[in-house]
Amino acid sequence: MWCLQLLLLFTLATSACPESNNDDVDFIPVLSTLLSSDLTLTQPIQVATTSIHPDGNQLGLGGRVAQRENCWNKLKKYTRIMMTDGVAQSERVLTISKYYLRCARGIPYNEYILELGALSDDPASLKAASYNYLNGLTTEAQTLHEYYDIQRKEISNPETGIYEIPTLDRRVSPTRVGGKGNYYLTTIAHLEHHADQLEYLSFNNKLPSVYLEVVAAIRHVVVPQVARSNVNSAEPGVPCIYVSPRERVDCIDKVRQNTFLLAPWMIDLMRGTFNRLIYMPKALPRSYKNPFCLNPDLDYKTLEDRYLEGDVLQIDKLMTDVCLSELRRFAQEGTIFYDFKKSYFGAYLDEGVREFDWINILISEFRERFPRVIGDMNLSTAWFYKYDSLESHAGGIGIHADQAAVNINIWLTEEDANLDKTSGGLVIYDTAPPQDEVYDDEKFFVWNQDIMEGFREKWLNEHGAKNVTVPYKENRAAVFDSKRLHATDAYHFKLDYTKRRINLTLLFGDGRNQEGETSEVVKMSNRLYKNENTL
User: Fold this and answer.
1) What pLDDT, in 10s, does the model give residues 269-309?
2) Among the four 19, 192, 217, 482, which has the fewest Cβ within 10 Å?
3) Which keywords, in A-to-Z order, does the entry hold (predicted)?
4) Which distant-in-sequence residues (6+ apart) come within 8 Å of 42 by Cβ?
5) SS3 track for 28-80
6) Which residues does 508 contact at the CB level (< 8 Å), separation at least 6?
7) Cα–Cα separations (whole angstroms), residue 466 to 186, 460, 484, 525
């Protein structure tokens, strides 16, 4: 059994950490001591992002780093197979992918405890196992510090002291600075999401209370120190005092968005939990009482007809109550949101999303219900994006296109979280970018960069583009030709962790015909077909 193999690997990794059955376990230094200490980062952490591609050269790595990178590469390989393989082999490939994700990101606490056997009747043993699990994560993180120092020297500009983080290939391991979802590069908003999620899981008895110590360390030590050490003061020479996300003195507006590198002591203080697979929720089984994910009462033939006529589809009450609830729970509980942007965080198909059963049910039912639109198209990719309510002024995803044929955006957060019912949705244009820009990987990389946002807006104006807006609503989907340019509408949501705006995006096909050539752009009318069917 793959879980047992992983457990053996984890046990070997943690064997140096003695078990303990008392309250004297060395977990983290006393917070009061840390707060009174003069903690500084080893290097300035202002980051200048450059747009270069890796040259393929690899350092001679050994031990854990080599293992992590090897697992990462194999995870990506099996993800590609999983998106194109037949149904008969999909379960086998998914099982292999689960193995390599855990090799790269660690074993979830709930799976670790489950493999140890029934501990619920022995609180002392359960507590010791919880500490042992965290000790193992810390030891694992410490083995990467030497490699981290090598990378930090490589990317630091000796003249300016500024880190120059290259935009690397998506398959780069999280052990490498600059790779998407790595262990070191982050924002304050991203760290605070990590703390919020651990707190939420602990309060809901998904994780033991010991994780609240990690939460306290993030909020009261790591985040304030990052804000103080970074060049984030509104006035030169005046320190940025960061008390809470809403209480910041002499800090610049973008202090929560700025990118920085975690110092090794910060990683240790968080007990190696950052950007690791700490908790993976289990799906409620499909049953005769809950057989469907998509609402069976919708008129799918009419929806297909309107899509093929060039309409943007607004589908209300898209999913059954159980499917909606399960997908929302998965996004709130799963510690898989490793990627960060200016105002939102991403969880992707290859890093845990495909493991949740209701995702696979949803994908299968879309193919069945939309045979003329989707049919046997491959799933190009899928992701959850979770938005930071406090950074709503920064906006969501800018104007862009996707390398796919059909785009399905589904909104999951409860209706009462949205403070402006006219916003929070998606702005969709009746115009597609030049197709050679979309289907050439290098050109697409340039086209979709954030720094090209102004260019895309100008391009739309020059081409007389019109748009239609699908407002946010719980359990509503926007379905449209993925070649259309589109952007997140302005949003205003409550600040609670469970009230963050969450969308699930599914992309089907790649927009090419069977000969591999770019398909002709379908009609792109500015009509919005509203479906108001109810369960």
Assistant:
1) 999 999 999 999 999 999 988 899 999 999 999 999 999 99
2) 19
3) Signal
4) 152, 263, 264
5) CCCHHHHHHCCCCCCCCCCEEEECCCCCCCCCCCCHHHHHHHHHHHHHHHHHH
6) 366, 374, 377, 378, 379, 380, 404, 405, 406, 408
7) 36, 8, 11, 9
- Angle at 23 (CA atoms; ends 20, 29), nearest 5 degrees: 100
Joined together, the tokens standing for residue 346 give 């991403």
- The sign of the torsion formed by the CA atoms of 258, 259, 264, 268 equals positive
**In the block, which residue shows the tokens 């919005």?**
528
CB 255 within 8 A of CB 238: no
**Interval 375-430: pLDDT, tens:** 888 898 999 999 999 998 878 888 888 888 999 999 999 999 999 998 999 999 98
CA torsion sign for 113, 116, 119, 123 is negative
Neighbours of 15 (CB within 10 A): 11
Give the integer Cα–Cα distance in Å for 75 and 351: 8
Report DSSP state, residue 209.
T
Q: How far apart are CA 62 and CA 56, in angstroms?
A: 18
Looking at CATH, the fold of the domain delimited by 300-531 is given as: Jelly Rolls (2.60.120)
* Helices assigned H by DSSP within 356-433: 357-369
Do the beta carbons of residue 523 and residue 285 sit within 8 Å? no
Please tell me the chain's helix, strand, coil percentages from 3-state DSSP, rounded to the nearest 5: 40, 15, 45
Domain boundaries defined on the chain: 2-56+63-269, 300-531
> CA 208, CA 438: separation in Å to the nearest integer?
46
Q: CA 364 to CA 174: how far, in whole Å?
A: 31
